[in-house]
Fold:
Amino acid sequence: MTRQEPPARNDNQPKMTATNHDAIRSRGGATCGNDEFVFWKCDNCGAFAILNEEIETIHTDADDLTQSSLYILGETTVCPSCGSADSYDRARVTDRLAIERSPWAWAL
Ligand SMILES: [Zn+2]
Structure:
């Protein structure tokens, strides 16, 4: 059975990737060597998260990447900032400035 992440509603947009893998690792993020970290954003409050698309785990705490949860259909992901359930959608390239001003700026 292939796991499947919840679909992005703006799937036609270019991905906003987090490219600082060294910093992600140093903050405790799990990496597998072939990672693609993509920014996702809470539609309700605008908080960012990063999703490792290779292993389908989402990190919602920019300071502690040892915290992660599976981001797959059938699992509920709660935004720690506003408490909304399943409110994440893929961040857009136009979110870059907001990411630079967020606690996730280091991951760009
Ligand atoms: Zn939120």
Observations:
- Residues 42, 44-45, 47, 79, 81-82, 84, 87 surround zinc ion (CB under 6 Å).
- The longest helix spans residues 21-26.
- Helices lie at 21-26, 96-100.
- The mean pLDDT is 91.
